[in-house]
Amino acid sequence: MSRMKKAVVTFLAVAVAVVAAFASAILPECNRMQVEAAGRPVSIDSCLLSGSNVDCQISAGSVPSSDDGKYYIYADEVYQDGPTGQIVATVEAGKSVTASFALNYNTADSNLSRKFLVAVKRNGQMVQVSDEHYITNPEAMAAYTSARKPAGIKGILPDLTKCSNGELQALGVSQVVYNMYVDDICSAASVPGAIPFNYNGQTYYFDSNMVGKYDSMIRSFNAYGMQVTMVILNGGRGQYSQDLVHPTAVGGDCPGYALNVADEAGTNHLKAIGAFLGQRYSGKQNHGQVDNWIVGNEVNARTSWWYTNSSSLDFNVNIYVKAFRIIYNEMKSMNANVRIYNSIDQEWNRKSNPGSFLAKEYLDQFNYYMNREGNIDWGLSYHPYNSPLYDPYAWNGPAVWVKNNITTPYITMQNIDILIDYMHQDKFLNPAGEVRSISIAEIGYTSSFGDAAQEASVAYGYLKAASIPDIDAFILFRQTDDAHEMESNLALGLYDLNGNKKPAYYIYQNLGTSNEGIAKARASEIIGMDIDKMISQNIVWTRGGDGVVQ
């Protein structure tokens, strides 16, 4: 290279560095990754399992300069950045090349849940020239795949005391949802009866007592013909699960903590948990079948359910995406038909808690990372509660909070169409070009201001969901009132604290059956309008005020 060319290259390198530094200083943190990505000339178009290998398709508009004309493919753990992991393949640099390397499944060098990137050697140093990309078809190797349980959309969070006497079946639900805390299921070799699980060259242990209880519960639900959804939570309490609490969440005081994807111990433990649960509840091991897993609860509510001490949207979404990728790949590699969902609340464009993130901005950033690092078939779990939560009227919300356009502060069942339309955008479609599975995995209506309002709200919410083909679940929260929630006027159960069935119980029992007309007639009477007309014509009533019920 001539001195003149060297001088030009040096000048351009300095100029690029200055521009990058300036952009980093002035751009919001959530946009920096986009700026960095724009400067990377190589694209990993796909990373797919092919037998016992991984095939990565790599393309480049222009081949980046390098010392030796090679692409180096790195496999990084999720907590690593840049060319710092293992070099798993080296290929001749080109505009369209394929790099293949061993999956190394269930070894210390397993690539199943790692992220891959391309680097070149320049002036003796490795320089990253592509974005990261994950394996996007882990289901291709699944050995425990079971057909999904057939299910209608009607579901409930069950009261386990009412499951053994036929009350759950009598309600006529097709789906149930339940929480699973990783704190409860983790154990150690020193604990008598602990279940050993050998994975990726290490042995992990699970609490036989707690896991046995989940086995029995899930098998019972399956026997009742019900599809099971489990929510994975991290309560941060367990003696044997402290490595699963993210370092930025240590010392917090919340019901839910971010999962640890910041170091080797937490990441490896999380991989083992995903594989263990995916295998055990595949329906092939006589422990029961879980068809749907939700990673966290309302994760945009940072200070409540996915705690870290950082208020950065990009930081929080980034670590959630890493945990999600691990659980997705580990579970789908066991059972191809399992579905994995994220979880956000109804605070679309307004947050009632300053420690939370807007649901819309969280969803957008989550989707950005998913598209950038390899699109997968993730599902959306959405909680379209009324606003305020204790507002009893699902069909007639406060005009200040419920609007019929994308700027609405909240998305409830009244304007759920906004969310559905939003998810129909091309950028949100799954790899097959289809609208993703949307689960209303948590929704409830209070009877604190009268039984009639709860009756009509339950009917309206269910019928609205049933009218939308993209919604795969409508799961009421909950079967029986909770005394603590009732202190905030949230009497959400179909049973009261004394075990008595409320009128809303009978409404819900009839919905989705040959007696649905009885439920519709009762709801129409309470609302003052034919409920079928209201829903079919998408009539949205709102009222003045802030939703405070007098």
Keywords, please?
single chain; 550 residues; alpha/beta; 8-stranded parallel beta barrel; 5-stranded antiparallel sheet; 15 helices; globular; disordered N terminus
The CA-CA distance between the termini, in Å, is 81 Å
Number of strands: 21
- Beta-strand level of the residues, as a percent range? 15-25%
Provide the low-confidence segments as ranges: 1-38
The largest sheet has its strands arranged as 9-10-14-15-16-17-19-20
How would you sum up the major sheet?
Answer: 8 strands, parallel, barrel
Radius of gyration: 25 Å
Mean pLDDT across residues:
93
The class by helix and strand makeup works out as: alpha/beta
Helix content: 25-40%
| Oligomeric state, counting identical vs distinct chains | single chain
Task: Note the overall shape.
Answer: globular
Total helical elements: 15
Structural description of this entry:
It is a single chain. The protein is 31% helix and 21% strand. With 550 residues, it is α/β, with parallel strands linked by helices. The strands form five sheets. It has an eight-stranded parallel beta barrel with strand order 9-10-14-15-16-17-19-20, surrounded by four helices. Strands 3, 4, 6, 7 and 8 form a five-stranded antiparallel beta sheet that branches. Strand 14 (227-233), helix 6 (264-280) and strand 15 (292-295) form a beta-alpha-beta unit. Helix 11 (451-466) runs parallel beside helix 13 and helix 11 crosses helix 14. The longest helix has 24 residues, at 3-26. It is globular. The model is unreliable at 1-38 (pLDDT under 50).
